[in-house]
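Its record is retained below.
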Amino acid sequence: MLKLPWAKGPAPAPRTADGEVYVMISKLELRSFRHVLPFLMASTAIRRQAVGSAGGVGHALAVEPTKKVFWTQSAWVDRKALMEFNSASPHKQIVEKYRPHMAGSVFSFFNTTVSTGLDWPEVHSRLAQEAAQRGEG
């Protein structure tokens, strides 16, 4: 598995009493190997976007090219910051472009005090649980 390390965003970790961040994790599976490299390149554009997004605490990416699977995790000061990122360019356009090429996607959203990224086995486990709850696992 190829792992791009946790990259800090412009927002500091929260200074709230509970110290929580809003986290989004995902598993994105492509239908065809021919989309793996272009999707990886598009992911680097999204990574650059996230580095400068207001409210972004940090993000990381892992790729299993032989399985056509991309794993993401990102932390935000709140849900609003994540939604603003999702609706901005280039993320929005890339999602629209690759949606027809996805074999499946699983997402999980939650609050946590971990603002420096989760271990990848925890990301995999949480997403497997999410898929099972949705009847996809």
User: Anything to note?
Assistant: The mean pLDDT is 93. The helical segments are 36-51, 79-86, 91-98, 120-133. The CA atoms of residues 49 and 88 lie 9 Å apart. The first strand starts at residue 2 and ends at 8.
